[in-house]
Specification:
The protein is an alpha/beta fold and 605 residues long. Helices cover 34% and strands 15% of the residues.
């Protein structure tokens, strides 16, 4: 890791001008704000529907439509669905059906098979259920293909292949009051009935495309990174993209996905043009094999302890030790250093906020210095420096991304925050210059901030035929982010009104424990219906709104991105926010709620 011995304060000597950085951050943010906000992206439907086709299917599953009944239907076969099913299985519940539009389990790791795909949080905390399965990752950041294999191992361990509908996409979920069951319609003609339904659609599952003028006019080859076209590029997830040796390739987007695949594209393509609106922060990855002596030293409960420790630190909390000690947790180490170097430190919330900003400035100065130390061309280096708080965007960790820009066949086309001008039949126009290309790869991520039903791909109809879209027309309404009044016996996993952590499987695990607890209680007590009360839901919504106001200034000051609704956080209902007191506090609320045992806020019949 980077040397942490340099004193970060001027009392202890400021190595930077905080006022100058605040001004620079503000100017860089302002130039990137667009009037269309989240509407700058277009939905992958109609002429663009092929961007969500499954390129990995080897055979099409043929089966008759199902018109039967199960206890629990789980929509989604990623970590959320797998964890929900695992926790239900651990509670002795067997009558479970999984519904998954892909050809196998894996969720985002089924779709994202681009070259270089890997977890960006260390695998010892990212992968769930390690102790339950008895699995240890082979290295700190395991590859995407290994995460996909592990997902399927989880499914086998919990016997989830026994009743699963792959290549099946829900098209409508509707509550039938007369039988107190959910009716699930699919693209395979199914009309399944389920006593309970768990919706785990994933926060980043629906690819998005930039609404660049002329995007439908390009005559060359295109694909989205989440549907990588190896027939065109050649090679595998390990690289070796020999099909590009005579190709001029353009990559639109410089976020987490591009950071991982660009080094392989740079190695394989005749010419690579990378179109950038906002640079990512690129810290050391420093990957290494798992130490067998460390594994032998671990005691039972190590996994939950390590996950909790990481989560406390990356969400701004203080822990006595840092078990992970990487770029994710470094800001807190900087903060503690600042506090320790003050004779009589002011630990009030306002003062700690100021110290956190200084610790963040120090971290980002280090990130920018790393660019200077790596990039040989000064102009390119300047364009690759991020000027915003580290957690305004998801930080990236890679040792080969920045060096790729030193290659003679790689060109960075920085648009100074304005984005691409247009796409033509031959290529991309940026800064008034046309770049002729044989292939355009969209590394433009997934929909965030659009309606829940749109991202899910199906509508949910509750009591009296009211859709979730109607019920949430003025903002989400839930109890603990998982249940909504008027939608009985239904549960949803996600970030909205729940605890947010960069380590998303951790949040899914805590939600899954909670959902399994409620469902088991209902099955054991022969409770026909469980539903969030309107009063409890309103109380929770008010709590979310009150706490969300505390984070509004930070988000408003951030450079545009999906964390802050493309620079317009005020346009998203405050109640669509996460639980503002932090995910650790949220997880504690859930645990204490279960321990209290009365199922407070739920109506059962």
């Amino acid at each position: 890791m980077t040397d942490q011995s340099t004193e970060p304060t001027e009392a202890a000597g400021l190595a930077f001008d905080p006022d100058a950085l605040r001004q620079k951050y503000s100017l860089e943010k302002i130039k990137r704000i667009r009037e269309d906000g989240n509407n700058q992206y277009i939905e992958v439907k109609g002429d663009f529907a092929h961007y969500v086709d499954d390129p990995y299917l080897e055979t099409i599953i043929e089966r008759e439509p199902l018109n039967d009944e199960i206890d629990i239907a789980i929509i989604g076969g990623g970590f959320g669905g797998l964890l929900s099913a695992a926790r239900l299985r651990e509670n002795g519940i067997d009558n479970i059906r999984m519904i998954e539009k892909a050809g196998d389990f894996g969720g985002t790791w089924y779709w994202n098979r681009y070259p270089g795909a890997a977890c960006d949080i260390e695998s010892y905390v990212y992968l769930p259920l390690l102790e339950e399965i008895g699995y240890m990752p082979v290295k700190k950041y395991i590859d995407g293909k290994d995460i996909l294999d592990y997902s399927q191992q989880l499914a086998r361990h919990y016997d989830l292949y026994d009743d699963v509908c792959f290549q099946t996409e829900a098209t409508e979920v509707r509550w039938d009051e007369s039988i107190a069951r959910w009716v699930i319609k699919t693209n395979r003609g199914d009309e399944m009935k389920a006593r309970f339904i768990v919706m785990s659609n994933g926060p980043l599952n629906r690819p998005k495309l930039p609404g660049i003028p002329g995007i439908d006019s390009y005559k060359g080859h295109t694909f989205h990174t989440s549907r990588w076209d190896y027939d065109y590029t050649g090679g595998t997830a390990d690289g070796g993209l020999t099909g590009l040796k005579d190709k001029r390739v353009g990559v639109i987007g410089t976020g987490a996905t591009a950071v991982q695949c660009v080094p392989h594209l740079a190695e394989g393509a005749k010419q690579l043009c990378i179109f950038q609106r906002t640079p990512s922060s690129i810290d050391e990855r420093n990957d290494h094999p798992t130490d067998p002596d460390w594994v032998a030293s671990l005691e039972p409960g190590w996994h939950q302890k390590r996950m909790d420790n990481f989560n406390i630190l990356v969400t701004g909390g203080i822990a006595e030790e840092d078990l992970v000690k990487d770029g994710w947790t470094e800001i807190i180490r900087n903060l503690l250093f600042i506090v320790k170097n003050e004779n009589e430190p002011d630990l009030s919330p306002g003062a700690m906020g100021e110290k956190m900003e200084l610790a963040d400035f120090q971290k980002m100065e280090q990130i920018r210095k790393r660019v200077d130390d790596t990039i040989t061309d000064e102009e390119t280096a300047e364009h690759l420096k991020p000027y915003y708080r580290q957690f305004c965007k998801r930080p990236c960790f890679h040792d080969d991304y920045l060096p790729a820009f030193n290659r003679p066949n790689v060109e960075l086309i920085d648009t100074d925050g304005q984005g691409i001008d247009r796409i033509t039949e031959k290529g991309v126009v940026a800064n008034g210059i046309e770049y002729e290309l044989d292939c355009i790869i969209f590394a433009t991520g997934f929909e965030v901030g659009t309606g829940y039903s749109r991202r899910s791909g199906y509508e949910i109809y509750g009591r009296k035929g009211t859709s979730l879209t109607q019920r949430w027309s003025e903002g989400a309404r839930t109890l603990h982010g998982m249940q909504s009044h008027g939608f009985p016996n239904s549960f949803m996993l996600g970030h909205i009104q729940s605890g947010f952590t960069p380590n998303y499987p951790h949040a899914l695990n805590e939600q899954s424990k909670h959902i399994a607890y409620i469902i088991k209680h209902c099955l054991d007590g022969n409770q026909r219906i469980v539903e969030a009360s309107e009063e409890a839901e309103t109380d929770w919504v008010n709590t979310i709104i009150k706490l969300a106001r505390d984070s509004q200034k930070f988000l408003a000051d951030c450079t545009p991105g999906y964390y802050n609704n493309e620079g317009k956080p005020q346009e998203r209902a405050l109640q669509d926010s996460n639980y503002g007191a932090g995910s650790e506090a949220f997880f504690k609320i859930l645990k204490e709620w279960r321990e209290e045992g009365s199922l407070a806020g739920l109506e059962l019949s």
